[in-house]
Structures are given as structure tokens and as C-alpha cells.
Please model this.
Amino acid sequence: MSETIITVQGEHEERRAAERGTVRLLVTYDGDSRHETLALATERHAEIAAGLREIHDAQNGPVLRWSSDQLRVWGDRPWSQNGEQLPIVHHAQVGIEAEFSDPAALSDWVGTVSLRDGVTVEGVTWRLSDETLRRLTAQVSQRAVEEAVAKARRYASGLGLTDLRPVALSDPGLLGDAGAP
Model:
């Protein structure tokens, strides 16, 4: 009897609430005095960094890690709407990033820090913990294979075939199928 090859794709999806949140913010000041602009940014940065140090615990959180960019200071001379170059405007800026293990603590912290002068929250990146991601990836992979085998059995049954034996398994595109089943 000739061999019949059935190629199918199995999929499975899981949704979980994020366990980690990494917030990125900027401390930015502008002004006509370089010294004052730099002092304001330095002071605000020191205040935020001190607060993060107080709640940082790499094992238990709520802040698992945090980092700060190098403080940047520069100036430029803007142009008026009449085409005249205006006096120099000085800028001071530093970025801060913090990873929280507790979404509620992150929310509270952002709610407090974002109200301070000179602070802009650029965004939050959400993710699972490494352990949860590994565990869920294994579960989802297993369920996707189970779905593919069940689908192949249904196809085989429709063809009147009873003996089903998987001969290859891959992610889409790895068997030369250009990603299509």
C-alpha cells in the first residue's frame, strides 16, 4: 500500500497577566541658565534614584533592578517666527529605567513620580518572569503538538485511514513549506 503524507499545523495560545513591568522615564529641564538647568535635572535625578534605592531588592522586589543613563547637557539657539536667532536654550536630560516585580507597586510609583516637575514617563514594557515563560512555552508547545496530531487523525479518518504515525515535526517554514501547512 502506498504511503499517505498528511501535513498539518497545530497551534495553542495561552494568555497570562504580566508579572514584570519595566518603566522608562526621562528627567528633562530646559532654561536660559546652563547651571540652573543642570542643577534642576541633577537634583530631580538624585531624588528619584534615592527612592528607587529604598525599594530595590533584586530577589524580592518590588524593584528588581534599576539603571540610569548618563546625564546629557546641551544647548541650542532657536529661531523666532521672524527669522531671528534667539538666545541659547540649555537642556539637561537623564533617563531612568526600573523593573518592578509587582504591577501594583509599579502603578503606585509611576503615579507618584509622574507628577513631579521635569519627569516624563516614556512607557512601560510588560513581560512574564523567566520561570513562567519557560514553563508556559513548554506547555504551549506540547498542546500545539497534541492539536496537530488530533487534526491529522481527523484528516486520516476522513480518508479511511486508521494507522497514523508522525514522521516529522517542525515550526512553520522549517520543512521547506514557506510557512504554510
